[in-house]
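Hello,

Our lab assistant flagged a job as stuck in the queue for most of the afternoon. It eventually completed. Since we weren't sure the result was trustworthy after the delay, we are filing this so someone can double-check. Below is the sequence as submitted and the structure that was eventually returned. Let us know if re-running is recommended.
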Amino acid sequence: MELQIYQVDAFTLDLFAGNPAAVVPLAEWIDDSLMQQIASENNLSETAFLVPKNNGGDHWHIRWFTPAVEVPLCGHATLASAAVIHREFSPSSWPITLESASGELAVDLDGDAFILNFPANAAVPGDMPEALAQALGGEFEECLTAVGFYLLTLTDEAAVRTLSPDFSNILSLTKDGIIVTAPGDSVDFVSRFFGPGLGIDEDPVTGAAHCVLTPYWSNRLGKKKLRARQVSQRGGELGCELRGDRVLLRGHAAFYLKGELTI
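-- returned structure --
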């Protein structure tokens, strides 16, 4: 079996920045175990698999795999997939619809940027897990929980940047993703994302986390449109907008690789 594969840096205009994702278009679904093996072999935070619903036009099915597990939603690999669809399959049929485990997702174009339309994942106040705070190494102001995530707040951007988590300890405490955030120095907010339980110690730029961050910061700052930066080593920037129970994420993509898998 031979399959096409692409690698795209998402939420950045520049190669070697943002979050790299692999994209594998398929004519029809292959075994789940094989998709997981491909994702593990790629060893990127996410590999997206696409199947066209209407001969590769504006309607597709999408699934996402980390090196360890399938996940219900992934932002940067969706952006990367949209970039591949636009460049290789459907340059003019926009917006597109992606059917996923998280329902229908829409992606549109705004010049050279992609706009992802995702479900909001609102966080609610929770108790601060002391052992988790110690494993992360921070003095946190607030702890909230959303579906699949902890959201922990710090005082400022420097405190987010200087965290040095104990990933093996975190893995023993929770399988949920951990979002750490604070007001930004030159943007509305910054964040980092840790997911040892998902097979990702630190994700460079995390769209699904911004489905949690956007309603939180929209409420805290009293504004619907926000500028965000994920301050990982690679880093990435997003435009975020809260629209009712949906979140719009704006980002760019840089193509890195086009190849072929022989299985």
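-- support follow-up --
The delay was a queue issue, not a problem with the job. The result is valid. The chain has two domains: 2-117+250-262, 124-244. Residues 75-89 form the longest helix (15 residues).
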